[in-house]
Amino acid sequence: MFISAYRYTGPLLEEEALKKAAENGLSSPEFLELCVWLGSQIKPLCNMEESITSTDDIESFQLEISGFLKEMSCPYSSLISGDIKDRLREKEDCLKLLLFLSTELQALKILRSKQIKGSHLEKHNEMYQEVQAICDALGLPKSSSSDIPPLLANVELKIKDILSKVQNNHVGKSLLTKPLNSDQVERLEKINDALRSEYECRRRMLMKRLDVTVQSFGWSDRAKVKTDDIARIYQPKRYALSPKSTITLAHLLAAREDLSKIIRTSSGSTRENTVCAINKVLMGRVPDRGGRPTEIEPPPPEMPPWQKRQEGGGRGGWGGGGGGGRGGWGSGGGRGGRGGGGGGFRDGGRGGGGFQGGGGGYGGRGGYGGRGGYGDPYGGRGGGGYRRY
Protein backbone atom coordinates (compact mmCIF):
# COMPACT_ATOMS: atom_id res chain seq x y z
CA MET A 1 0.00 0.00 0.00
CA PHE A 2 1.28 3.52 -0.90
CA ILE A 3 0.79 4.94 2.60
CA SER A 4 3.00 2.26 4.14
CA ALA A 5 6.01 4.14 2.78
CA TYR A 6 5.09 7.05 5.09
CA ARG A 7 5.39 4.87 8.23
CA TYR A 8 1.64 4.57 8.63
CA THR A 9 0.80 1.70 11.01
CA GLY A 10 -3.01 2.00 11.14
CA PRO A 11 -5.67 -0.57 10.18
CA LEU A 12 -5.98 0.60 6.52
CA LEU A 13 -2.71 -0.78 5.17
CA GLU A 14 -4.57 -3.41 3.13
CA GLU A 15 -6.22 -2.27 -0.09
CA GLU A 16 -9.54 -4.00 0.61
CA ALA A 17 -9.80 -2.41 4.03
CA LEU A 18 -9.08 0.98 2.50
CA LYS A 19 -11.80 0.56 -0.16
CA LYS A 20 -14.34 -0.46 2.45
CA ALA A 21 -13.47 2.54 4.62
CA ALA A 22 -13.83 4.84 1.56
CA GLU A 23 -17.28 3.37 0.85
CA ASN A 24 -18.41 4.10 4.40
CA GLY A 25 -16.93 7.60 4.16
CA LEU A 26 -17.38 9.82 7.19
CA SER A 27 -19.14 7.04 9.08
CA SER A 28 -15.89 5.04 9.17
CA PRO A 29 -13.67 5.89 12.19
CA GLU A 30 -10.67 4.36 10.40
CA PHE A 31 -11.13 6.71 7.44
CA LEU A 32 -11.32 9.73 9.72
CA GLU A 33 -8.20 8.65 11.63
CA LEU A 34 -6.26 8.20 8.38
CA CYS A 35 -7.20 11.73 7.24
CA VAL A 36 -6.14 13.15 10.61
CA TRP A 37 -2.82 11.28 10.43
CA LEU A 38 -2.08 12.53 6.90
CA GLY A 39 -2.90 16.09 7.98
CA SER A 40 -0.62 15.82 11.01
CA GLN A 41 2.25 14.72 8.73
CA ILE A 42 1.68 17.51 6.20
CA LYS A 43 1.25 20.47 8.57
CA PRO A 44 4.81 20.70 10.01
CA LEU A 45 6.39 20.28 6.56
CA CYS A 46 4.81 23.42 5.08
CA ASN A 47 3.97 25.48 8.20
CA MET A 48 0.21 25.46 7.69
CA GLU A 49 -2.26 27.33 9.87
CA GLU A 50 -5.18 24.94 9.39
CA SER A 51 -5.17 21.44 10.86
CA ILE A 52 -7.30 18.30 11.00
CA THR A 53 -7.83 17.15 14.57
CA SER A 54 -11.51 16.33 15.15
CA THR A 55 -12.73 12.74 14.73
CA ASP A 56 -15.59 12.74 17.23
CA ASP A 57 -17.74 15.45 15.64
CA ILE A 58 -18.51 14.95 11.93
CA GLU A 59 -19.47 18.59 11.33
CA SER A 60 -16.25 19.87 12.90
CA PHE A 61 -14.26 17.40 10.81
CA GLN A 62 -15.94 18.62 7.61
CA LEU A 63 -15.16 22.24 8.46
CA GLU A 64 -11.53 21.44 9.29
CA ILE A 65 -10.96 19.35 6.15
CA SER A 66 -12.51 22.10 4.01
CA GLY A 67 -10.23 24.80 5.43
CA PHE A 68 -7.22 22.48 5.18
CA LEU A 69 -7.84 21.72 1.49
CA LYS A 70 -8.42 25.38 0.62
CA GLU A 71 -5.15 26.39 2.26
CA MET A 72 -3.36 23.72 0.23
CA SER A 73 -5.06 24.91 -3.01
CA CYS A 74 -6.70 21.56 -3.69
CA PRO A 75 -7.42 21.18 -7.47
CA TYR A 76 -10.52 18.97 -6.97
CA SER A 77 -13.53 21.29 -7.06
CA SER A 78 -15.84 18.58 -5.68
CA LEU A 79 -13.86 18.63 -2.41
CA ILE A 80 -13.81 22.41 -1.83
CA SER A 81 -17.08 23.67 -3.37
CA GLY A 82 -20.78 22.94 -2.97
CA ASP A 83 -22.62 21.93 0.17
CA ILE A 84 -20.06 20.97 2.80
CA LYS A 85 -22.20 18.03 3.96
CA ASP A 86 -22.34 16.47 0.47
CA ARG A 87 -18.62 16.62 -0.42
CA LEU A 88 -17.53 13.26 1.02
CA ARG A 89 -20.64 11.14 0.52
CA GLU A 90 -19.37 9.30 -2.55
CA LYS A 91 -16.60 6.71 -2.55
CA GLU A 92 -14.78 8.47 -5.41
CA ASP A 93 -14.60 11.72 -3.47
CA CYS A 94 -13.16 9.96 -0.41
CA LEU A 95 -10.52 8.27 -2.56
CA LYS A 96 -9.71 11.64 -4.19
CA LEU A 97 -9.18 13.11 -0.74
CA LEU A 98 -6.79 10.34 0.28
CA LEU A 99 -4.96 10.54 -3.05
CA PHE A 100 -4.49 14.29 -2.78
CA LEU A 101 -3.27 14.19 0.83
CA SER A 102 -0.88 11.28 0.24
CA THR A 103 0.66 12.75 -2.93
CA GLU A 104 1.11 16.14 -1.24
CA LEU A 105 2.84 14.41 1.66
CA GLN A 106 5.10 12.54 -0.76
CA ALA A 107 6.07 15.75 -2.59
CA LEU A 108 6.78 17.59 0.67
CA LYS A 109 9.01 14.79 1.91
CA ILE A 110 10.98 14.83 -1.36
CA LEU A 111 11.49 18.58 -1.13
CA ARG A 112 12.54 18.36 2.49
CA SER A 113 15.10 15.64 1.73
CA LYS A 114 16.57 17.82 -1.03
CA GLN A 115 16.85 20.74 1.36
CA ILE A 116 18.65 18.58 3.92
CA LYS A 117 21.02 17.26 1.27
CA GLY A 118 21.64 20.80 0.07
CA SER A 119 22.48 21.99 3.58
CA HIS A 120 24.83 19.04 4.07
CA LEU A 121 26.46 19.75 0.73
CA GLU A 122 26.89 23.42 1.61
CA LYS A 123 28.47 22.49 4.93
CA HIS A 124 30.72 19.98 3.16
CA ASN A 125 31.84 22.65 0.71
CA GLU A 126 32.64 25.04 3.55
CA MET A 127 34.73 22.41 5.33
CA TYR A 128 36.45 21.50 2.07
CA GLN A 129 37.42 25.14 1.50
CA GLU A 130 38.91 25.39 4.98
CA VAL A 131 40.91 22.18 4.56
CA GLN A 132 42.07 23.34 1.13
CA ALA A 133 43.25 26.62 2.69
CA ILE A 134 45.33 24.60 5.17
CA CYS A 135 46.83 22.62 2.30
CA ASP A 136 47.70 25.83 0.47
CA ALA A 137 49.37 27.25 3.58
CA LEU A 138 51.46 24.08 3.96
CA GLY A 139 52.39 24.02 0.29
CA LEU A 140 50.59 20.77 -0.49
CA PRO A 141 49.51 20.15 -4.09
CA LYS A 142 45.82 20.52 -4.85
CA SER A 143 43.85 17.30 -4.93
CA SER A 144 41.33 16.46 -7.63
CA SER A 145 39.14 14.63 -5.10
CA SER A 146 36.72 16.47 -2.82
CA ASP A 147 36.97 13.88 -0.06
CA ILE A 148 38.09 15.50 3.16
CA PRO A 149 39.64 12.51 5.03
CA PRO A 150 42.49 12.00 2.50
CA LEU A 151 43.27 15.71 2.62
CA LEU A 152 43.43 15.64 6.41
CA ALA A 153 45.76 12.63 6.28
CA ASN A 154 48.12 14.55 3.98
CA VAL A 155 47.96 17.57 6.30
CA GLU A 156 48.86 15.40 9.29
CA LEU A 157 51.86 13.89 7.52
CA LYS A 158 53.09 17.30 6.43
CA ILE A 159 52.79 18.77 9.94
CA LYS A 160 54.67 15.85 11.47
CA ASP A 161 57.42 16.30 8.89
CA ILE A 162 57.71 20.02 9.70
CA LEU A 163 57.74 19.48 13.47
CA SER A 164 60.53 16.92 13.16
CA LYS A 165 62.80 19.64 11.75
CA VAL A 166 62.33 22.21 14.56
CA GLN A 167 63.18 22.26 18.26
CA ASN A 168 60.99 20.48 20.74
CA ASN A 169 59.83 23.67 22.46
CA HIS A 170 59.26 25.61 19.24
CA VAL A 171 55.47 25.27 19.25
CA GLY A 172 55.00 25.05 23.00
CA LYS A 173 52.61 23.01 25.07
CA SER A 174 48.89 23.21 24.58
CA LEU A 175 46.97 25.43 27.01
CA LEU A 176 44.16 22.87 27.12
CA THR A 177 45.65 19.75 28.67
CA LYS A 178 42.56 17.51 28.83
CA PRO A 179 40.48 16.14 25.95
CA LEU A 180 36.91 17.37 25.52
CA ASN A 181 33.85 15.15 25.26
CA SER A 182 30.78 16.00 23.18
CA ASP A 183 28.90 17.53 26.12
CA GLN A 184 31.80 19.83 26.98
CA VAL A 185 32.17 20.86 23.35
CA GLU A 186 28.48 21.76 23.17
CA ARG A 187 28.69 23.82 26.36
CA LEU A 188 31.80 25.62 25.11
CA GLU A 189 30.02 26.43 21.85
CA LYS A 190 27.15 28.05 23.79
CA ILE A 191 29.61 30.06 25.90
CA ASN A 192 31.42 31.18 22.78
CA ASP A 193 28.14 32.21 21.12
CA ALA A 194 27.23 34.35 24.15
CA LEU A 195 30.67 36.00 24.21
CA ARG A 196 30.61 36.64 20.47
CA SER A 197 27.21 38.30 20.76
CA GLU A 198 28.45 40.53 23.60
CA TYR A 199 31.65 41.54 21.83
CA GLU A 200 29.82 42.11 18.57
CA CYS A 201 27.69 44.70 20.36
CA ARG A 202 30.82 46.36 21.74
CA ARG A 203 32.56 46.37 18.38
CA ARG A 204 29.53 47.97 16.74
CA MET A 205 29.56 50.72 19.36
CA LEU A 206 33.27 51.41 18.84
CA MET A 207 32.86 51.46 15.07
CA LYS A 208 29.98 53.91 15.36
CA ARG A 209 32.11 56.14 17.60
CA LEU A 210 34.85 55.96 14.97
CA ASP A 211 32.42 57.04 12.25
CA VAL A 212 31.13 59.95 14.32
CA THR A 213 34.66 61.08 15.21
CA VAL A 214 35.85 61.04 11.60
CA GLN A 215 32.67 62.81 10.55
CA SER A 216 33.33 65.58 13.09
CA PHE A 217 36.74 66.17 11.51
CA GLY A 218 34.99 67.30 8.35
CA TRP A 219 33.08 70.14 10.00
CA SER A 220 35.90 72.66 9.69
CA ASP A 221 36.18 74.87 6.62
CA ARG A 222 39.60 73.47 5.78
CA ALA A 223 38.30 69.90 5.81
CA LYS A 224 35.15 70.58 3.78
CA VAL A 225 37.21 71.08 0.64
CA LYS A 226 38.95 67.73 1.24
CA THR A 227 35.87 65.57 1.80
CA ASP A 228 36.63 63.32 -1.17
CA ASP A 229 40.24 62.84 -0.11
CA ILE A 230 39.20 61.90 3.42
CA ALA A 231 36.62 59.44 2.12
CA ARG A 232 39.11 57.90 -0.31
CA ILE A 233 41.54 57.18 2.52
CA TYR A 234 39.06 56.32 5.26
CA GLN A 235 36.39 54.22 3.55
CA PRO A 236 38.58 51.25 2.47
CA LYS A 237 40.02 50.86 5.96
CA ARG A 238 36.62 51.36 7.57
CA TYR A 239 34.85 48.69 5.53
CA ALA A 240 37.66 46.25 6.23
CA LEU A 241 36.51 46.23 9.87
CA SER A 242 33.89 43.62 10.71
CA PRO A 243 31.66 43.75 13.79
CA LYS A 244 31.48 39.96 13.99
CA SER A 245 34.09 38.06 15.96
CA THR A 246 36.10 35.36 14.23
CA ILE A 247 37.03 33.46 17.40
CA THR A 248 35.90 29.83 17.32
CA LEU A 249 36.47 26.70 19.34
CA ALA A 250 39.45 25.94 17.11
CA HIS A 251 41.30 28.91 18.62
CA LEU A 252 40.88 27.36 22.07
CA LEU A 253 42.27 24.04 20.88
CA ALA A 254 45.21 25.78 19.20
CA ALA A 255 46.05 28.03 22.18
CA ARG A 256 49.47 27.52 23.79
CA GLU A 257 50.78 28.10 27.28
CA ASP A 258 52.29 31.47 26.43
CA LEU A 259 48.77 32.82 25.88
CA SER A 260 48.17 32.71 29.64
CA LYS A 261 51.03 35.15 30.25
CA ILE A 262 49.60 38.60 30.88
CA ILE A 263 51.69 41.40 29.40
CA ARG A 264 51.07 44.96 30.55
CA THR A 265 49.79 47.26 27.84
CA SER A 266 52.27 49.93 28.96
CA SER A 267 55.32 47.71 28.69
CA GLY A 268 58.11 48.69 26.33
CA SER A 269 57.65 45.79 23.93
CA THR A 270 53.93 46.45 23.62
CA ARG A 271 54.28 50.23 23.23
CA GLU A 272 56.61 49.70 20.29
CA ASN A 273 53.60 48.56 18.27
CA THR A 274 51.00 50.94 19.75
CA VAL A 275 52.97 54.19 19.95
CA CYS A 276 51.50 56.99 17.88
CA ALA A 277 52.57 60.55 17.10
CA ILE A 278 49.31 61.92 18.50
CA ASN A 279 50.33 60.70 21.97
CA LYS A 280 53.05 63.37 22.08
CA VAL A 281 50.66 66.26 21.45
CA LEU A 282 49.98 68.24 24.64
CA MET A 283 46.71 70.09 24.98
CA GLY A 284 46.72 73.63 26.33
CA ARG A 285 44.47 75.07 28.98
CA VAL A 286 40.81 74.81 28.12
CA PRO A 287 38.05 77.11 29.42
CA ASP A 288 36.20 76.06 32.53
CA ARG A 289 32.75 74.90 31.56
CA GLY A 290 31.50 74.70 35.16
CA GLY A 291 28.74 72.29 36.01
CA ARG A 292 29.86 71.50 39.58
CA PRO A 293 26.87 70.91 41.86
CA THR A 294 28.46 72.77 44.78
CA GLU A 295 28.55 76.01 42.76
CA ILE A 296 24.91 76.00 41.70
CA GLU A 297 22.62 78.33 43.68
CA PRO A 298 19.39 76.80 44.93
CA PRO A 299 16.15 78.03 43.33
CA PRO A 300 13.93 80.50 45.26
CA PRO A 301 11.36 78.94 47.57
CA GLU A 302 8.03 78.29 45.98
CA MET A 303 4.62 79.10 47.45
CA PRO A 304 2.39 76.16 48.32
CA PRO A 305 -0.11 75.33 45.58
CA TRP A 306 -3.07 75.93 47.93
CA GLN A 307 -2.05 79.49 48.87
CA LYS A 308 -1.73 82.70 46.87
CA ARG A 309 1.54 84.53 46.78
CA GLN A 310 1.59 87.35 49.35
CA GLU A 311 3.98 90.24 49.19
CA GLY A 312 5.57 91.61 52.38
CA GLY A 313 4.51 88.93 54.77
CA GLY A 314 4.54 85.29 55.46
CA ARG A 315 2.94 82.95 57.85
CA GLY A 316 3.73 83.56 61.50
CA GLY A 317 4.68 80.79 63.80
CA TRP A 318 4.21 80.48 67.52
CA GLY A 319 4.38 84.05 68.67
CA GLY A 320 5.67 85.12 65.28
CA GLY A 321 5.19 88.53 63.79
CA GLY A 322 4.03 88.25 60.22
CA GLY A 323 3.34 91.63 58.71
CA GLY A 324 -0.15 91.24 57.35
CA GLY A 325 0.03 87.61 56.54
CA ARG A 326 -1.80 84.81 58.18
CA GLY A 327 -1.01 84.89 61.88
CA GLY A 328 -0.18 81.98 64.05
CA TRP A 329 -1.02 81.42 67.66
CA GLY A 330 -0.83 84.82 69.27
CA SER A 331 0.99 86.49 66.44
CA GLY A 332 1.27 90.20 66.78
CA GLY A 333 1.15 91.62 63.30
CA GLY A 334 0.11 95.03 62.17
CA ARG A 335 -3.14 96.18 60.79
CA GLY A 336 -4.66 93.08 59.70
CA GLY A 337 -6.01 91.20 56.83
CA ARG A 338 -6.83 87.61 57.40
CA GLY A 339 -5.23 86.82 60.70
CA GLY A 340 -3.07 89.92 60.58
CA GLY A 341 -2.85 92.27 63.54
CA GLY A 342 -3.46 89.70 66.18
CA GLY A 343 -3.66 86.66 63.97
CA GLY A 344 -5.47 83.63 65.14
CA PHE A 345 -8.01 81.54 63.33
CA ARG A 346 -10.54 84.21 62.50
CA ASP A 347 -10.35 87.58 60.88
CA GLY A 348 -9.49 90.28 63.31
CA GLY A 349 -10.73 93.81 63.41
CA ARG A 350 -8.43 96.70 63.69
CA GLY A 351 -5.59 95.39 65.83
CA GLY A 352 -6.96 92.62 68.03
CA GLY A 353 -9.60 89.99 67.99
CA GLY A 354 -9.63 86.43 66.93
CA PHE A 355 -9.01 83.41 69.00
CA GLN A 356 -6.20 84.27 71.35
CA GLY A 357 -5.68 87.47 69.45
CA GLY A 358 -4.68 90.69 71.00
CA GLY A 359 -1.87 93.08 71.03
CA GLY A 360 0.50 90.68 72.72
CA GLY A 361 1.24 87.04 72.79
CA TYR A 362 -0.59 84.35 74.58
CA GLY A 363 -2.61 86.09 77.28
CA GLY A 364 -1.34 89.52 76.29
CA ARG A 365 -3.23 92.76 76.50
CA GLY A 366 -6.90 92.14 76.87
CA GLY A 367 -6.55 88.93 78.80
CA TYR A 368 -7.23 85.47 77.49
CA GLY A 369 -9.56 86.56 74.79
CA GLY A 370 -7.69 89.71 73.81
CA ARG A 371 -9.32 93.11 73.52
CA GLY A 372 -12.16 91.86 71.49
CA GLY A 373 -13.08 89.09 73.87
CA TYR A 374 -13.51 85.45 73.01
CA GLY A 375 -14.03 85.46 69.31
CA ASP A 376 -13.79 89.01 68.14
CA PRO A 377 -16.13 88.75 65.14
CA TYR A 378 -19.06 88.67 67.50
CA GLY A 379 -17.87 91.73 69.36
CA GLY A 380 -16.73 95.10 68.24
CA ARG A 381 -13.48 96.84 68.77
CA GLY A 382 -13.64 95.98 72.40
CA GLY A 383 -16.13 94.95 74.98
CA GLY A 384 -17.97 92.49 72.80
CA GLY A 385 -17.86 88.72 72.57
CA TYR A 386 -18.97 85.99 74.83
CA ARG A 387 -16.84 86.65 77.81
CA ARG A 388 -14.71 89.40 79.08
CA TYR A 389 -12.33 89.49 81.97
UniProtKB/TrEMBL annotation:
Family the UniProt entry places it in: Belongs to the FAM98 family.
Taxonomy, superkingdom: Eukaryota
Biased composition (Gly residues): 313-389
Biased segments, Basic and acidic residues type: 286-295
Organism expressing this protein natively: Apteryx owenii (Little spotted kiwi)
Coiled-coil ranges from the UniProt annotation: none
One Pfam family it belongs to: DUF2465
PANTHER family per the UniProt record, alphabetical: FAM98 (PTHR31353), PROTEIN FAM98B (PTHR31353:SF11)
Name of the protein in question: Family with sequence similarity 98 member B
Record region (Disordered): 285-389
InterPro entries, sorted: FAM98
Cellular compartments per GO CC: tRNA-splicing ligase complex
